[in-house]
Specification:
By secondary structure, this protein is mainly α. Helix content is about 75%, strand content about 5%. It has a 3-stranded mixed sheet. Helix 2 crosses helix 9 and helix 5 runs antiparallel to helix 7. The longest helix is centred in the middle third of the chain and has 34 residues. About 35% of the residues are buried.
Length: about 300
C-alpha cells in the first residue's frame, strides 16, 4: 500500500489544450446529445405505435435505442461540464457509478448486437421456420439475457473496485471515469481486477464479434444462393443497417485495443472514445431509418396523424 491522503474526488481533464473552442464544442456536443435522445426516442415511439414494426428485428432495435439514450446520458453531461468550468470534479462514489453504468451499457450493447445478428441469421437462413422459432417469448428471453449478462459481468468487477482504497493521483486524463486511471489511483493490489477485466473483455468483444462473423458468413452464403438479383438485394437490405453499425462499433474498439503499445496514443484513443460514446449513438437512428421503407412509412404516418385531426 502506498502512503498518501485518501481520495474523495477525481478530476476529469476532458480535452485540455482547446482554449478558445470550448463554447463551440459545448454547442456541438449539446446538439449531438439532443439529436441522439430525439432520434433514439423516435425509434422507440414509432415501434410502439406502429403494429407493422412490432417484429423481433424492431424489438431488438428498441432495446438498442433505449440503451443508447442512457449510454450517452452517462457520459455527455459531465463532458459538457468540462467545457464550462475550469476544473471538473466528480466525487469518488459518483465516478465509480459512472464507470459502472458506462461499462455495463457498453457491454450490453455488444451482446444486443450479437443477438440482432442471430435474429438476422434466422430470418434469412431459416425463413420458413423463423416465425415459429423467433417467438415473442424467445425475443424477451434473448433481450433480458443480454441485459442481465452485461449487468452481471460489470457488477462483479465493480463490487471489487468499490472496496479498494484510493490515495494515488486523482487526475483522470479523460472525459469520463475510465477504469484504467481509477485503478492507478488505488492504494492496493489491483492484479485480480485487471485479470478479471481482461477476461471479461476477451469474452465480450472478441466473443460477440466471432459470433457475429459466423452469423454473417451463413447469411452471405445464403444470400449469394438466391437466384434473382432483386431477391439478393432485398435480403441484404434487411441486414445492411445492422452490419454498418457493427462495423463502426467493432472497428473503433479493435483500433483502440489491438494496436501495439509502442504506437498507441492516448489522444487518439480519446478521439476514438468520442466515436463510440457520442457519434455512434447519434448515427444509429439514421443508419437504421435512412433506407428503411417500413420505418419511413411509419414516420410519415405518425406525422400525418396530427394533420388528419386538424382536418376533422
Amino acid at each position: 500500500m502506498r502512503n498518501g491522503t485518501a481520495i474523495t474526488e477525481f478530476v476529469l481533464l476532458g480535452f485540455p489544450g482547446i482554449q478558445g473552442f470550448q463554447a463551440l464544442l459545448f454547442m456541438v456536443i449539446f446538439l449531438i446529445y439532443i439529436l441522439t435522445l430525439s432520434g433514439n426516442g423516435l425509434i422507440i415511439f414509432l415501434v410502439w405505435v406502429e403494429p407493422r414494426l412490432q417484429t423481433p428485428m424492431y424489438f431488438f432495435l428498441c432495446n438498442l435505442a433505449f440503451l443508447e439514450i442512457w449510454y450517452t446520458t452517462t457520459v455527455i453531461p459531465k463532458l459538457l461540464e468540462t467545457f464550462v468550468v475550469p476544473k471538473t470534479v466528480i466525487c469518488t462514489t459518483c465516478c465509480l457509478l459512472q464507470a459502472f453504468f458506462h461499462f455495463f451499457l457498453g457491454t450490453t450493447e455488444f451482446l444486443i448486437l450479437g443477438t440482432m445478428s442471430f435474429d438476422r441469421y434466422l430470418a434469412i437462413c431459416k425463413p420458413l421456420r423463423y416465425p415459429t422459432i423467433m417467438t415473442s417469448s424467445l425475443c424477451m428471453q434473448l433481450a433480458l439475457s443480454s441485459w442481465l449478462a452485461g449487468f452481471t459481468i460489470v457488477f462483479c468487477q465493480t463490487m471489487l473496485l468499490v472496496q479498494l482504497p484510493f490515495c494515488g493521483n486523482n487526475v483522470i486524463n479523460h472525459f469520463y471515469c475510465d477504469v484504467g486511471p481509477i485503478l492507478k489511483a488505488a492504494c492496493a493490489d489491483t492484479s485480480i481486477l485487471e485479470l478479471l477485466g481482461l477476461l471479461a473483455t476477451i469474452l465480450v468483444i472478441p466473443g460477440s464479434l466471432l459470433f457475429t462473423i459466423i452469423s454473417y458468413v451463413y447469411i452471405l452464403s445464403t444470400i449469394l444462393r438466391i437466384p434473382s438479383a432483386s431477391g439478393r438485394q432485398k435480403a441484404f437490405s434487411t441486414c445492411a443497417s445492422h452490419l454498418t453499425v457493427v462495423s463502426l462499433l467493432y472497428g473503433a474498439v479493435l483500433f483502440m485495443y489491438l494496436r501495439p503499445t509502442a504506437h498507441s496514443s492516448f489522444k487518439i484513443n480519446k478521439v476514438v472514445s468520442v466515436l463510440n460514446t457520442i457519434l455512434t449513438p447519434l448515427l444509429n437512428p439514421f443508419i437504421y431509418t435512412i433506407r428503411n421503407k417500413e420505418v419511413k412509412g411509419a414516420l410519415g404516418k405518425a406525422m400525418s396523424c396530427p394533420k388528419a385531426h386538424l382536418a376533422k
